[in-house]
Design brief:
heterodimer, A: about 15 residues, mainly beta, rod-shaped, B: about 260 residues, nine-stranded antiparallel β-sheet, five-stranded antiparallel β-sheet, 20 strands
């Protein structure tokens, strides 16, 4: 089963 | 003073239709260069970025940078009051807590204005790095919407596999499996009917159908859509907004446990 990644784990907060 | 006038008002109506399912509220950042919106959905799985260039508007004035936080359901309700051929103007005073939408019929015989309260939104802004994607697939937007809709019948996820042979969309679930293969078109009469694949290395990634289907609400904005993929990074689904800008959806992949 594949788990859904979160978008904010790829892009950093600015 | 902020004022943006768009003769092709239907574009703004279509932009709202393209984001309102994904986002409840968002801030429009207005600057001299144009209007931008960036927001994540509630689950932080996807990110929407809208860019409308100042030159794309028929009249554009922004004396001071302005952040307009809006309830998008309310904004959508207001834009529903504009006819498709209406000219739309957005107006706000500096430091105002309201924005005014003005709709003019093409003959100028009917003019409506609607004032909406702005919100103070505390939203995270994310920096999106410039990326050279391993695969960029351009295809007719209607075809992409159809593929997402059809494969949603089979499962919650769509696997997108891009190789030099073409691109394959697959889904599997209780009722069985579905596969749709698209090859690069060799010759087409119209540019918007083309399937174009630029590939540096093959990429296979898995994405949630629910989000892909929400992105396809942007289909009326543009006859073509582009999908950009690299291994282990978010997918970018991009539609142009007439000649004035573009909407990009970033979607985090599903990763095998």
């Amino acid at each position: 089963k594949a788990s859904q990644m979160r978008i904010d784990s790829y892009f950093t907060s600015i | 003073m902020f004022e943006a006038r768009l003769v092709q008002g239907s574009l703004l109506k279509k932009v709202l239709d393209a984001i309102k399912e994904l986002l409840n509220e968002a801030s429009w950042d207005c600057a001299d260069s144009g209007i931008q919106l960036q927001a994540m959905d509630n689950s932080h799985v996807s990110l929407v970025s809208v860019n409308l260039r100042a030159e794309g508007f028929d009249k554009y004035r922004c004396d001071r940078n302005l952040i307009m936080g809006m309830d998008l359901t309310s904004m959508s309700k207001i834009l529903k009051c504009a006819a498709n051929d209406d000219i739309i103007t957005m107006k706000a005073q500096d430091n105002a807590d309201t924005v005014t939408f003005i709709f003019e019929s093409p003959s100028q015989e009917k003019v409506s204005d609607y004032e909406m309260k702005l919100m103070n939104l505390d939203q995270d802004h994310l920096g999106i790095p410039e990326t050279d994607y391993a695969c960029v697939i351009k295809l007719p937007s209607g075809e992409f919407a159809r593929i997402c809709r059809d494969l949603s019948n089979f499962g919650e996820s769509i696997v997108i596999a891009c190789s030099k042979e073409g691109v394959k969309f697959s889904a599997a679930g209780d009722i069985g499996t579905g596969n749709i293969k698209l090859a690069q078109t060799s010759s087409v009469d119209k540019e918007e009917e083309a399937v174009i694949i630029e590939m540096q290395e093959p990429v296979t990634l898995t994405f949630a159908c629910r989000y892909l289907n929400m992105f396809t609400k942007a289909t009326p904005l543009s006859p073509q859509v582009s999908l950009s993929m690299s291994p282990d990074v978010p997918l970018v689904v991009e539609y142009s907004i007439g000649d004035i800008g573009q909407i990009q959806y970033f979607l985090a992949p599903k990763i095998d446990d």
